[in-house]
Amino acid sequence: MGNNLLQGKRGFIFGALNDMSIAWKVAERAVEEGAKITLTNTPMAMRMGTTNELAEQLNTIVIPADATSVEDLQKVFEESQKYLGGKIDFVLHSIGMSPNVRKKRTYDDLDYTMLSTTLDVSAISFHKMIQVAKKMDAIAEGGSILALSYVAAQRTFFGYNDMADAKALLESIARSFGYIYGRSKGVRVNTISQSPTYTTAGSGVKGIGNLLDFSNKMSPLGNADAAECADYCIVMFSDLTRKVTMQNLFHDGGFSSMGMSLRAMNQYEKGLEEYTDEHGNIIYG
Ligand SMILES: NC(=O)c1ccc[n+]([C@@H]2O[C@H](COP(=O)([O-])OP(=O)(O)OC[C@H]3O[C@@H](n4cnc5c(N)ncnc54)[C@H](O)[C@@H]3O)[C@@H](O)[C@H]2O)c1
């Protein structure tokens, strides 16, 4: 049940692909809290996923757009304002994709055209989105812009690959634009660094099952799930966080501050054999 935290607010949400998507849960919660929203995703995602079903459920529209296209983004802001009847109060960027990860290219054998795509889709699209919004003056005074990040921006995780670089850039864009947009319009720009979560994008991360288990065992509060992430997004969209900007906010059950936990240690104690190759050489993974 909602608490009317977003009563009277207008928002739009990028990245709801199916009912596992974090953006899907955020869209549902935003409406539950009294907001009017529009949705957007790529034409391909709309064919492959179930974004239209969510739009039907929430009685709204989906505006097809590729977040790397400035023209598409202009269209999204134009049509959303028209449909919602005014300036936008909050925006969620919930977009990530790495062709290198998809094609199993390792970090020491990256394809650079694919790296450009990773950075464009997963990070620069955030800059494009904010720049378009600012030029069109589409965000209301005191509005809130959020993107979703991961702790691999600060620490190295096996297999996260070039997405780590994309997340570092994404968080930097939030700081740089947060300063500029805060100064001129009081608009907040933040990133939420979420626990590993089982979604379509999440399942592309190498060894996601083990990663989920490890981070759950390392976190005093356990992993945060997509619905809990949605709760945090709602607070960040609401007026309760008017003075929070340019931050990367960890929403990870405490994982990012941990070194070793009792539960992880207990798991580790079950086997101390070295991880070796067929010649008995230690694999430093
Ligand atoms: N799942 C996790 O473990 C996890 C953890 C931390 C952060 N995140 C981040 O959360 C965000 C949402 O991912 P998710 O886990 O909900 O997965 P998801 O696969 O449900 O969502 C990813 C979305 O990105 C969209 N997308 C891809 N290319 C696009 C483009 N060019 N233009 C517009 N949209 C495009 C997809 O269509 C999809 O809707 C991503 O930024 C992801 O990196 C996920």
Q: What is the alpha-carbon Rg in Å?
A: 19 Å
Q: What integer is the average pLDDT?
A: 95
| Individual helix count | 10
The gross shape turns out to be: globular
Q: What this model shows, in words?
A:
The chain is of the alpha/beta class and 285 residues long. It has one domain: NAD(P)-binding Rossmann-like Domain (Rossmann fold), CATH 3.40.50.720. Helix content is 43%, strand content 15%. The chain has ten helices and seven strands. The protein has helices spanning 22-32, 43-48, 51-57, 70-84, 99-102, 112-136, 163-185, 208-218, 226-237, 262-269; strands spanning 10-14, 36-41, 62-64, 88-93, 139-149, 188-194, 248-251. A seven-stranded parallel sheet has the order 3-2-1-4-5-6-7, sandwiched between helices. Helix 7 (163-185) links the parallel strand 5 and strand 6. The radius of gyration is 19 Å and the shape is globular. The mean pLDDT is 95. Nicotinamide-adenine-dinucleotide binds at residues 14-15, 17, 21-23, 41-42, 45, 66-68, 94-97, 121, 148-150, 194, 196-197, 199-202. Nicotinamide-adenine-dinucleotide binds next to helix 1 and strand 5.
